[in-house]
Every structure is written in C-alpha cells, then in structure tokens.
Specification:
Blueprint (H helix, E strand, L loop, with lengths): L7 E6 L19 H9 L5 E6 L20 E4 L2 E4 L25 E5 L22 H7 L4 E7 L1 H14 L3 E10 L7 H11 L3 E3 L1 H4 L2
Parallel strand pairs: 1-2, 1-6, 2-5, 6-7, 7-8
Antiparallel strand pairs: 3-4
Bound molecules: pyrazine-2-carboxylic acid and zinc ion.
C-alpha cells in the first residue's frame, strides 16, 4: 500500500517498561521495537502513542482474583479475558515509556485501561467494544484516513487496535518488524498476523514504509 504521509498517522502502542525484558509482563525482545519505531516517528508528521495505564487492583490483574494465576483465561460479564501479572500501574516506572523510545514526535498520548473493572487493549475502544478512547474522533478530526501500527504487544493491543481501525474505516498497515508478540498462548502472534490480514490489514516491514 502506498503511504500518504499527509493523511497517515503512526500509532505507537504501549512501548512501556513493563512490556520490555525485565518488566512485569515482558514481551520477548520487546525493547527492540523502540529504535525501529523511532525511525518511523522521525518520518511521520502525525504520531500518536498509547500507554496502558491501570489503577492498582485492576480487574485484569490475576492478583485481584484470589487463587488465580497470571496468563490464565477468565471471563467477566460474559466476555473472555486473560489474567495478567500486575503491570503498567499508573505512575510507576513500569508504566513509563521505555527509555529508548523517543517520545518527542508524539502530539497525543492516549491512556487506556484506567477503569478498574474494564480492560482496554485497543487504542480505539475499551474491551466492552463500545466505550471509545476518543482516538477515532481525534484522527478523523485532523483528516487521518490511514493508521500505521507498531509497538507492543502484536497479539493483544496491536491486534485489537488493527481490527477496530479496520472496522472504523481506516486503511491499516501493521509494521511487522516494529512489533513483538507476547505469544501467550503459544502461536498467538502468528494467529494475530493472519487474523489482521484476513480482515484487510496490510503487513509491511519498516524498510518498505520508509522507502
Ligand atoms: C497489553 C496485556 C495486558 C498490551 C496490555 O499492551 O498488548 N497486553 N495489557
Ligand atoms: Zn494491561
């Protein structure tokens, strides 16, 4: 797909310490996305970032549910969910952007997951599928029609952001080498890529995006 840099937005998803090696919910090789995303953000006039931003005791934390373990499946109000280690607690070092992520080019930072009883993977809607983060209104308001996604984690926040962006009518590009997967359960990274492509997302490498 041709990228029109006047109407495309780079959306850098959750490049936070807790999702990098040494963090609370480490994505294997997660810190490798920072330099790749920095090369992209230097080129995109419109850059937006998201930050997972949970209160202590968030309902997605296994520790909030006695007897439950991180990475177990659970359900809440009829919705499937995954229980996680405590991560990205508001104001903690784990919730901060990775030190090698250059945040200067970002004009908007969307924080999500801040309601105790509602998790939020997508940059566009919380996990109830209907509570907007406001990002769609922002992007449409400044004339964006193409969303270029990178960041963490490919199989959760990037994946759900891509599906929502497609449903909202954006052209969607996922920059494969600027993402990494949690891969829990195993294989979820590859399934996420296939699922996004089946719904109309284009998967590119950053060298093609920057060409
Ligand atoms: C994420 C699990 C829990 C993500 C956030 O950023 O992909 N994954 N919270
Ligand atoms: Zn989270």
């Amino acid at each position: 797909m041709h990228i029109d840099f006047r109407t495309a937005a780079l959306v850098a998803v959750d490049v936070q310490n807790d999702f990098c090696p040494g963090g609370a919910l480490p994505v294997p090789d997660g810190d490798a996305v920072a330099p790749a995303i920095n090369r992209l953000s230097a080129r995109f006039p419109i850059c937006v970032a998201t930050q997972d931003w949970h209160p202590a005791g968030h309902s997605s934390f296994a520790s909030t549910h006695p007897g439950r373990q991180p990475y177990e499946a659970a359900s809440s109000g009829g919705r499937d969910m995954t229980l996680w280690p405590d991560h990205c607690v508001q104001g903690t070092p784990g919730a901060a952007f990775h030190p090698r992520f250059d945040e200067r080019p970002y004009r908007l930072i969307v924080r999500k997951g801040f309601r105790r009883n509602l998790d939020s993977y997508s940059a566009f809607f919380e996990n109830d599928g209907s509570t907007p983060t406001g990002l769609d209104g922002y992007l449409k308001g400044i004339g964006v029609d193409q969303v270029v996604l990178a960041g963490l984690a490919l199989d959760y926040c990037v994946y759900y952001s891509a599906l929502d962006a497609l449903a909202l009518g954006y052209h969607v590009v996922v920059v494969r080498d600027a993402t990494r997967a949690v891969d829990a359960p195993a294989g979820s990274g590859e399934r996420a890529l296939a699922g996004m492509m089946a719904k109309g997302a284009e998967v590119m490498d950053s060298i093609e995006v920057l060409r």
